[in-house]
Fold this protein.
Amino acid sequence: MPSPYHFITLSLYNIILYLMKVTHYLPLAAACLMMVGCGAGKQKAEMTAGIQLANLDTTALPGSSFYQYACGGWIENHPLSPEYSQYGSFTELAENNRKQIQGLIEELAATQHEAGSVAQKVGDLYKIVMDSVKLNKEGVAPIKADLEQIASLKDKEAVYALLADLRKQGIGAYLGLYVAADEMNSNENAVQLYQSGLSMGERDYYLATDSSTTAIRDAFRTHVQKMYQLAGFDEATAKKGVEVVMDVETRLAKAFRSRTELRDPHANYNKMSMEEVKKNYPTFNWDAYLSGLGLTDVKEIIVGQPASVAEAANILNTLPVDQQALYLQWKLIDSAAGYLNDEMAQQNFDFYERTMSGTQEMQPRWKTAVSVVSSALGEAVGQMYVEKYFPAAAKERMVKLVKNLQTALGERIDAQEWMSDSTKIRAHEKLATFHVKVGYPDKWKDYSKLEIKNDSYWANVCRASEWGFNDMYSRIGKPVDKDEWLMTPQTVNAYYNPSTNEICFPAAILQPPFFNMEADDAANYGAIGVVIGHEMTHGFDDQGRQFDKDGNLTDWWAPGDADRFKERAQVMVDFFNKIEVLPGLQANGELTLGENLADHGGLNVAYLAFQNATKDAPLGVVDGFTPEQRFFLAYATLWAGNIRDEQIRVYTKSDPHSLGKWRVNGALPHIQAWYDAFHITPSDPLYVAPENRVNVW
């Protein structure tokens, strides 16, 4: 289900969910990872302070809504355009960055290059995506042969080979398979299965009975029928297809774990030998499926969600072959729709973006083209981007900031009275072994085996997907490459990966409002400092704390410490569960616990690091704001944004991050330094009594 994943930080599992569980992963990943820009046009005085006064709403009271106080000016000056369901400071930066990358790509597209060169691939793919005349002339022809191949299925055995072919093209049906570090043996890669295959992404869209969800489900049925017919099916077949799609995906949804349940790493780790896999799911033809993927010597598989695999096997075993064919034709149509003619792309947009997310207007084609190229040839584009736009001085200053944050987190660990000394020692060991990645990888990916040809947009997307899957499958039997990056340098985001114990900050995030080379420490520690602290805290949140310094899923805590941690974390869960994000719709404190804890830890750690950095040379008041006030204003600015109600509902169902407003108004009331900086009193609406505040890191 296409929608921008606009928030900072991703755990490894969330990265996998995000990049792999989508209907067709290639361009979606790009669209969501292109959120970056540069701070052009600011006045020198503003750059020095790191705060733009125009972003504020000084008619608001900090203790009533700090979000409105810090971001109200920005919100008023950036109303939602039809192109967006959500527009924030991230999105604002995206426009500048996208134009920068567009310039790099179009420069290559303007001239001929040697066949097979990276320049040829980048330039030609861009031109292919931009050629709407050719796309509309082709119509649905690029998928006709595949539709006919699916229609020719004669028996169940043939379905498994077809599933493998579709998976290699980036089309997921019934279940997902990926290769990544074994969480209990983090130096080794392992084949892993996860629940996948829902066109609408989340199980609640199939199961919930509230009026808004029911309306979306009804709209989905209409959408499926329209798409079948646009692909050339008659009305009767299209209606039959709708019933098959709803039957299959509702059955799958009932077997799926919720997003909250997916946060339990132990529950989602079920290693089985191939003999056990075949015994537990005997009707599934594993030999045909795995060999179709080119995986002929698999000894073990880690099954993430056993019930979903069991249901997939059951459906494959019982659903008549003609209905199997009809369903797989839908998966192909659904995956390809955005890469075909305007009519198909528009209908696809109308449901997934307009109906589900509230977006009113498709983005111009050049933005799509930039995103697709930046995904298919991500590190090739990243290398160009870094060479032109990423100064070495930024990396040097960032490395220093990271070290300062590590020191501060160590001090925070020592200060926790609820944690025993032995656990503190192990925590320090984990902190000391953080693998820090800043800017860009030391070794770039090799795209020599990816062929970009002037046939069809869809064919190139499929080849890029297959290249990505082959690249992933090549890791089987090899040690984990801990120097590999899970994000491209042009990605405005950051992540913590528990299985490699790494924190990563791509080049694109190292610019305003996150990181400002011309701003003082108040702004930088409040912005990028909190981001760094956030990622570090992920190593010790409710998920990350279950992994040791080597990235293995194991219990390294002294008896009783985990219970004390859970008791304190529950305060955060209960606090966010009480937040009403829309009338009648509550936030999900369980789903967002890890990110809320990371925000909490990031703020505490960054503030301490800021104090340490300025203790010998205190900063003065600028524009009427103390350094402490500027710290918190810089943090709040990161989350400025406008969002449609439809998108709020999407995020509340699926996003492990709280909404931007609540990453401010929900996080700061648990930070004593914020109370001190803005003189918040018990009479203020945001005030939380000390005994009711979260106190973890």
Notes: Residues 136-374 form a domain with the Neutral endopeptidase; domain 2 fold (CATH 1.10.1380.10).
